[in-house]
Each structure stands twice: as C-alpha cells, then as structure tokens.
Write a structure and sequence with these properties.
5% strand, 6 helices, 2 strands
Length: 170
C-alpha cells in the first residue's frame, strides 16, 4: 500500500512539474552588458585598493616598530621594553581595527558595494519578474550560479529579454 501511494505521489509530482514553465537567465552575461555595473565594480576596486594601502601602511608601521624593538632590545630597560611592546601591540590593533572597519562583514566595502550594486540587482530582479509574469514562467533559474545545470535549451534563456527590458538591447 505504501509503495502504491508513493508511486501515485511521484506520478502526480511528475505530471504537475511538466505543466510548469521554466526559464533561464545568465546573470554574468546580463551584468557584463550593463555599463553601470562595470563602473560600480571599477569604483569598488579603486576604493578597495586605497583602503588596502591604508591598512598595509599601518601594518608596516607595526612591523617597523617590532624590527626596531628587536634590534634595540639588549639596550632597553624593562620600562622601555614594556613601552615599546605596548606601542607595537597598539599599532597591530590599529591595523586590525582598520581591516575590520573596511573589509569586515559589515565594513565600509560591504556598505559601498550594497549602495552601488543593490540598485542594479533590484532593477534586474524587477525586469526578470515582469518578463516571468508576462510569459507565464513559474521558475527562473540563473545558469551562471553553480546550480548543476548540465544542459539547457537556448530557447528558454531569457537573458536577452531582460537586457532589452532594462534598455540595453543588443
């Protein structure tokens, strides 16, 4: 009885699935054809390099303090050793805090990325949603994400439609 119920359920799911319409998009292709996305990425790269240089400068200052400390260690009193060690630790902490401030999970780079990229992604989402509703798709899958799609017919790829809807027709 269980087997028969399972078999009927499988048939019901299979027949239900065939009635649904699917489509694919290639998010990499879409984003690669949106100039605002390229500009945003360039802006993010520039600000990231600037912040990375700032972090490295503080990190190098800590390393220099440590090297000097190592070279002068034999000549320092206990009080001087303690002061130098505290200065080194303080500089290392400053570098760590800067790294976290700029590149941490809620850091400045994340906030900048959200402010630049999120509006573009929202616009793409709205275009995909409008096309899906217009053409009756129940599911739209991004083939650029590592979803395990081995083969998909080009006829169900609506990436060009999305670009056209966004005003980037080729």
């Amino acid at each position: 009885m269980k087997f028969l119920t399972s078999l009927l359920f499988c048939f019901a799911v299979a027949f239900g699935a065939t009635a649904q319409k699917y489509a694919l998009i290639d998010m990499e292709y879409i984003l690669g054809n949106i100039p605002a996305y390229e500009r945003a990425n360039e802006q993010l790269n520039q600000v990231s390099k600037k912040w990375q240089a700032e972090v490295e400068a503080v990190d190098n200052a800590a390393k220099t303090l440590y090297k000097n400390y190592q070279n002068e260690l034999v000549f320092l009193s206990e009080q001087q050793k303690k002061e130098r060690e505290e200065a080194i630790i303080g500089k290392e902490r400053e570098a760590s805090e800067l790294r976290k401030k700029y590149f941490g999970p809620e850091g400045e780079l994340y906030k900048k990325r959200m402010s630049l990229i999120e509006p573009i992604q929202e616009e793409i989402y709205n275009a995909v949603k409008a096309i899906a509703q217009q053409k009756g798709f129940q599911l739209v899958i991004d083939r650029a994400s590592n979803s395990g799609i081995i083969f998909a017919s080009p006829s169900i790829d609506i990436s060009a439609d999305v670009l056209e809807k966004l005003g980037y027709a080729r």
